[in-house]
Amino acid sequence: MERIYLDNNATTIVDPLVRDAMDPFYCHMYGNPNSLHSFGIEVRPYLHQAMEQLYLGLNAADEDDIVINSCATEGNNTVILGFYFNLLKDTRKKHIITTQLEHPCIRESCRFLEQHGVKVTYLAPDRDGMITAAAVKEALTDQTALVSVMWANNETGLILPIKDIAEVCKERGVYLHTDAVQAIGKIKVDLQDVPVDYLTFSAHKFHGPKGVGGLYIRNGVSLPPLLHGGEQMGGRRAGTVDVAGMVAMGKAMELANTHLPFENTEIRRLRDKLEDALLKMEDVMVVGKRELRTPNTVYVSIRGVEGEAMIWDLNQNGIAASTGSACASESLEASPILTAIGADRELAHTGVRLSLSRFTTEQEIDFTIYVISKAVARLRKMSTSY
Amino acid sequence: MAKKDLIGGELWEQYSSKVADRMNNPRNFGDLTEADAKKLGGRLVIANEGAESCGDTVRLFWIVDEKTHVIKKASFKSFGCGTAIAATDMMAEMCIGKTVDDAAKITNLDVEHALRDEVDKAAVPPQKMHCSVMAYEVIKRATSIYRNVDISTLDDANIVCECARVTLQTVEDAIRINDLKTVEDITDYTKAGAFCKSCIRPGGHEKRTHYLVDILARVRADIERERNPQKSAADDFAKLSVVKQIKAVEAALDEFVRPALARDGGGIELENITPAEDGSVQVHLSYQGSCKGCAGSVAGTLTFVEQTLRKEVSAKIRGVVV
User: Fold this and answer.
1) Structural element, H or E, at residue B185
2) What are the distances in angstroms from CA A284 to CA A126, A130, A280, A352?
3) Which of A177, A214, B82, B284 could, after both became Cys, cross-link B271 (CB 3.0–4.6 A)?
């Protein structure tokens, strides 16, 4: 069976060009970049090149740092826990503001700090599924040290007003971190235009390999390392650099940026085609205004159809998608986004997310539309609630 | 944690082929109508269980011969995941040809066993066991409708863990007989809490009337009291002034209760404290926020609050919801 991958917000295929770029470092160029000898020497230019690609891709200033690490979870933990040791532990600044939309690595790091006397505000999204700058402003207190708000939401694709939030934080002298995992490769991320202090990302969300990511730290902003040890990354992150991974991420970033116009036209067109077809069915709702979302994502609620049952049927036909709330998780909380936008409680378990990539084809979308309409008919016929 | 637990994420690949097959091709779904009942010369029974907001609902249809009480036909409808659909389909099939009394004896464990490919290999992963519980509950609901009795009369004596069908008595006995000290011990001895884990503590998959942490705390406290009777006699909370009682209760609510309730968007207020004739002290409480009006949670939350106050303040406290 031909398979169709529409779960690109979870992870992406490694671009063949990226794979080619990383291959030599698994074969003949296996030196440790910290070595003095020729094996180390021959590797280093490639790391410098990767840095050029990453700085250019994010439009970061040369004085800023982009620390290469293992993933966004590591980057996010570095920021949140680093803040504890830097500020929260010993000063009167004891408050972090974040949102209910964040990835568990932010939420759980914050919960961990709560056990150590830090106060954390988890902002709820408004009825449009958004976190506004006004909401952040209102939550700021004299004790707030850090605001952490994602750039784009994984579930809905909604792009948060991170530039406005950055202005609010700057006004009040509060540090701002953004998890840009879902933004890079989908929309322009420009660090000259948006003055955040910290930004985290992960290569495997933009056709790079798993296990490598980055943490941007603006010039002049301090942050202690999470991993202590050698002098790699200027002492900001110890541990032998994943050379192949870093080179791959540089290449993936370059490709992500060259493909942004394609993302915004062709992928958007396919997403819209899929979304229009879904909305043609009765009692179907898509979360978030289309123009406010990343071009590749549609989060749909189909009345009477339980989310996991839907992705089961899709999977039976070789199509990969995901649910909003995992029924199998131990806590069956409704999707916070579906709750926030005021959807009926009945809809909380109907969310299905489809996320495209530049490797998605029109034929795949057409087949998906056909499979979904069949699955909806089958599951609604069985459903108590339709 | 151990070698087999570190990767995680397995779910669908643990389904038996029977579960997958019944999800793809359920045999017994769809409505049965009064016309169908008339044709078969039986009585139509329709039972609903669950709520969409909780992620699972099921409707069971029976046509029952009123002379023999035999279920001549059964079918279902379901809003739920693959396990829920497969389990409900199997359950409906198992009802057919049985008397209502015999059908009422079918449990979720029977359904799960029937869905196995191999006798000693579970049909669904542990975290999916709760999806089959509703298949059992809806039979009970249908039975109560058919017999025209209140469903509570069919309740098993205080089931703590629905997935493994472990009663309160079993858990209490296991703690006492084996001198158990942790929830993990209880799970090892009784299997309670081994599946969806809702019954371990509040805040899990489903709200429950009893939680293992509370039962453990209560039974441990009883055991300690029995071993050390002087200490409990010194509990003179009932003799304190009302002001001091209020302060003690408020402090315990702040520290132990409100943070837990706030996680679910709920809250609790102390309304009054009054002595009762039997020497206990009644603490009158009212629910705020999402706890308010959630009938399912009232009993469970009250148990949690009462156990906490008894443990932290005085064993003489009785909780009353205003």
Assistant:
1) helix B183-190
2) 21, 21, 8, 11
3) B284
Q: Quick one: tokens of B285?
A: 């409480």
- Which residues from B are below 8 Å from A345, CB to CB? 52-53
Sheet holding A175-179, edge to edge: A65-69, A213-217, A198-202, A175-179, A144-148, A95-99, A119-123
The CATH class of B12-155 is: alpha beta
- Give the number of beta-carbon pairs within 8 Å between A and B: 80
B54 is known as an active-site residue: yes
Name which CATH class applies to B235-322: alpha beta
Could you tell me the pLDDT band of residue B155, with boundaries at 50, 70 and 90? low
B140-147 CB contacts, 8 Å cutoff, 24+ apart: B140/B104, B141/B47, B141/B48, B141/B49, B141/B60, B142/B45, B142/B46, B142/B47, B142/B60, B142/B62, B142/B100, B142/B103, B143/B100, B143/B103, B143/B104, B145/B45, B145/B46, B145/B47, B146/B43, B146/B45, B146/B62, B146/B64, B146/B100, B147/B100
Q: How far is A118 from chain B (nearest CA, A)?
A: 15
What pTM was estimated for this model as a whole? Answer: 0.80
Bigger pLDDT: A293 vs B234: A293
Of the residues B95, B131, B196, B199, only one is catalytic, namely B131
* Chain A nearest CA to B289, separation (Å): 15
Indicate whether A290 and A312 sit together in one domain.
Answer: yes
What is the pLDDT averaged over residues A350-364?
96
- By the 10 Å C-beta count (0-12 exposed, 13-18 middle, 19+ buried), B179 is classed as exposed
Q: How far is B94 from chain A (nearest CA, A)?
A: 19
Q: Do B82 and A312 touch (CB under 8 A)?
A: yes
Start-end of CATH 3.30.300.130 domains in chain B: 235-322
Contacts of A2 (CB under 8 A, 6+ apart): A318
Number of domains chain A is built from: 2
Chain B residues with CB-CB distance to A304 below 8 A? 79
B81–A308 C-beta distance less than 8 A: yes
Q: What is the CATH number of the domain that holds A52?
A: 3.40.640.10
Closest-CA distance, B126 to chain A, in angstroms, reads 10
Interface membership of A332 toward B (CB under 8 Å):
yes
Interface test with B, best of A11, A349, A352 (most B CBs within 10 A): A349
- Interatomic CA distance for residues B299 and A361, integer angstroms: 53
Nearest residue in B to A306, CA atom: B80
Domain boundary among A238, A258, A278: A258
| Per-residue pLDDT reduced to its tens digit, A113-161 | 999 999 999 999 988 889 999 999 999 999 999 999 999 999 999 999 9
Q: Is B95 a catalytic residue?
A: no
Average pLDDT, chain A: 93
Q: Assess A308–B contact: CB distance below 8 Å, yes or no.
A: yes
In this prediction, residue A331 has a pLDDT band, given cuts at 50, 70 and 90, of very low
- DSSP character at residue B33: -
Optimal mutation site among B27, B81, B294, interface A, most CBs of chain A within 10 A: B81
**pLDDT value at A330 more than 60:** no
Exposed, middle or buried, B43 (CB in 10 Å: 0-12/13-18/19+)? middle
Which residues in chain A have Cβ-Cβ distances shorter than 8 Å to B52?
Answer: 345-349, 385
Token reading at B96: 């057919």
Angle (CA) B9-A349-A102 rounded to 5° is 65
Interface of B with A (CB under 8 A): 11-12, 23-24, 26, 29-30, 48, 52-59, 77-82, 84-85, 125, 127-128, 131, 196-198, 203-206
